[in-house]
């Protein structure tokens, strides 16, 4: 990935516009100025002016702290997953990994061959998901642009049915690959995907390791009961623990934006909610400030980030427009009310959650991709199907790629001449993979 980004920057001559190693420590519009004033750590006394700012720091910035009862008694190490770099440091140790997300699963399986014992402590369970079905076909091959659009509609209009469909898909993936999800493992207690509290853990070997006893699944930590002793929620005591790795997630750091954005208080235990239209634009500064990395998406993440960036570029270029401030404020009010209910159920849920169909419709329209118009039920979709059924099939029922975003001329983002061939090639590649899966099944 790093090599690709470097080659991309070199090809399009981006290095001349980039300064590396800069840390912003102050960010405001002071003294009635129209431009943003950014102060950098290496030159605090000389703020620099910028016309527009894109906030793209990601959501994983500040490790979320945790304090155990009796923690001062513990003689071993307690470390956050952010500090886990060298897995060899756990050789010969008894390690307890706390948490039930992708990071916890990845760390647990990667220290199995080094540590003496590995324990995975968690309370809420998770949807454990293998990246492929039993036939070897990647599971995300099912999430085509057409099927994703249907799921987004269900999520918004019939959330109870959407939850059932998604829960069933996750459960079927588990059963196909590993058989019964035994209650004693503690994973089956995961809330429904409908509730927004779910954790989907993509991990191919976690369940096999649990079955083999290489990883022991345990309830949550109740307290530290001695220098090397940990008591679990169910009363059992685990001795000789050398290290506890807390995979408790992160808080997105918006402190530097506290004088720029407005916030509303969230439910008890949840962080304040930033007032952002579509999770991107603060209405009072929509012409010059955009938060690209705040939104938590259902669907392809990389393509979603690209769409957000494309939409910001087209809006600021004047090719697309935002609604009036009053309309944006009303959307924010309704959105925060919806999000408040989700966070009230689970304060740890992502405050960047959005209704997928609203968000996707907005960014596709603003970016000018033309994709949703050409795979839906409108006249453009029927025209494409009639004129070029091969392309329609590949675009609607093939993998979600960035190629499709550059197929159609809409007067906004640039069209790419090679997009059609790239979309067809990606579709053919996926068909070959699916054919191999059918042969595995003997169909």
Automatic annotation (TrEMBL):
SUPFAM superfamilies tied to this protein: FAD/NAD(P)-binding domain
An MF annotation (GO) of this entry: flavin adenine dinucleotide binding
Gene3D superfamilies noted in UniProt: FAD/NAD(P)-binding domain (3.50.50.60)
InterPro entries with a match to the protein in the record: FAD/NAD-bd_sf, Flavin_mOase, Flavin_mOase-like, FMO-like
Origin superkingdom: Eukaryota
Entry keyword set: FAD, Flavoprotein, NADP, Oxidoreductase
Protein family: Belongs to the FMO family.
Protein name, as recorded: Uncharacterized protein
């Amino acid at each position: 990935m790093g090599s690709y980004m470097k080659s991309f920057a070199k090809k399009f001559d981006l290095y001349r516009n980039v300064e590396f190693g800069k840390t912003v420590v102050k960010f405001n519009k002071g003294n009635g100025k129209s431009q943003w004033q950014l102060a950098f750590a290496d030159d605090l006394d000389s703020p620099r002016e910028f016309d527009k700012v894109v906030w793209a720091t990601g959501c994983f910035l500040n490790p979320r702290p945790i304090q155990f009862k009796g923690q001062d008694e513990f003689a071993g190490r307690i470390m956050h997953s952010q500090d886990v770099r060298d897995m060899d440091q756990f050789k010969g140790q008894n390690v307890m990994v706390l948490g039930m997300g992708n990071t916890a699963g990845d760390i647990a399986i990667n220290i199995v061959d080094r540590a003496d014992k590995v324990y995975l402590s968690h309370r809420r369970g998770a949807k454990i998901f293998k990246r492929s079905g039993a036939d070897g076909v990647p599971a995300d091959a099912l999430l085509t642009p057409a099927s994703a659009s249907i799921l987004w509609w269900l999520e918004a209009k019939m959330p109870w049915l959407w939850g059932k469909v998604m829960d069933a898909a996750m459960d079927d993936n588990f059963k196909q690959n590993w058989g019964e999800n035994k209650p004693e493992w503690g994973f089956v207690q995961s809330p429904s995907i409908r509730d927004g509290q779910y954790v989907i853990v993509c991990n191919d070997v976690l369940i096999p390791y649990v079955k083999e006893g290489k990883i022991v699944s345990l309830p949550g930590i109740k307290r530290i009961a001695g220098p090397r002793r940990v008591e679990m929620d169910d009363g059992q005591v685990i001795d000789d623990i050398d290290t506890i790795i807390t995979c408790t997630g992160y808080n997105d750091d918006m402190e530097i934006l506290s004088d720029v954005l407005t916030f509303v208080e969230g439910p008890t235990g949840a962080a304040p909610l930033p007032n952002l239209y579509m999770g991107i634009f603060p209405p009072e500064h929509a012409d010059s400030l955009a938060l690209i990395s705040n939104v938590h998406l259902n669907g392809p993440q990389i393509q979603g980030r690209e769409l957000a960036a494309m939409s910001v570029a087209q809006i600021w270029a004047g090719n697309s427009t935002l609604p009036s401030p009053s309309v944006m404020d009303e959307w924010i009010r309704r959105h925060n009310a919806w999000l408040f209910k989700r966070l009230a159920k689970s304060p740890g849920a992502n405050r960047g959650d959005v209704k997928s169909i609203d968000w996707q419709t907005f960014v596709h329209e603003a970016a000018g991709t033309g994709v949703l118009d050409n795979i839906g039920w409108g006249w453009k979709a029927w025209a494409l199907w009639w004129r070029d059924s091969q392309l329609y099939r590949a675009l609607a029922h093939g993998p979600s790629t960035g190629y499709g975003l550059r197929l159609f001329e809409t007067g906004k983002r640039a069209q790419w001449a090679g997009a059609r061939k790239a979309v067809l090639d990606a579709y053919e590649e996926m068909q070959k993979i699916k054919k191999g899966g059918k042969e595995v099944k003997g169909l």
